[in-house]
Amino acid sequence: MSVLVFSDAQTAATAAATLLAGQLIEKPSLVLGVDSAPALASAFHSLSAMTANGLLSWGKATVFQLSERVREEGKGSLRAYMDETLFGELSLAPGQVLAPDDASDNWADSCHGFEDAILQ
């Protein structure tokens, strides 16, 4: 494992996006887990720009959104944020994005189902 150190957050975001792009190009059926932290927005923007410029194709990829919050009144889901910030920009089909359910009636079943999808 190597640790990369960058002079600023924007350079780190660009490097992270470039590394992910390289993985996607090398393996178009990439399975990727992404966090919804706002600090990653710059990396998401870089990936979106590469996709818009025709450098990346996400048609065979699968993306797991690794976090979600229980739906609260007045707050949107993290899935909605990710759809707006990343998934929509990458033209991912609904079946290509897997995320925890934010409005489940049975949290145990929902969590187990999401974990099973990750394991597969």
Explain what the structure shows.
This protein is mainly α and 120 residues long. Helices cover 44% and strands 8% of the residues. The chain contains 4 helices and 3 strands, in the order H-E-H-E-H-E-H. It has helices spanning 9-26, 41-52, 78-87, 107-119, and strands at residues 31-34, 62-65, 97-98. It has a 3-stranded parallel sheet with strand order 1-2-3. It is globular and about 45 Å long. The two termini are 25 Å apart.
Write the layout of secondary structure elements.
Elements: H1 9-26, E1 31-34, H2 41-52, E2 62-65, H3 78-87, E3 97-98, H4 107-119
Helix pairs in contact: 1-2
Compute the average pLDDT. 88
Number of helices: 4
- Number of beta strands: 3
Give the amount of beta strand, in percent: 5-15%
Secondary-structure element sequence? HEHEHEH
Helix fraction by DSSP (H/I, runs of at least 4)? 40-55%
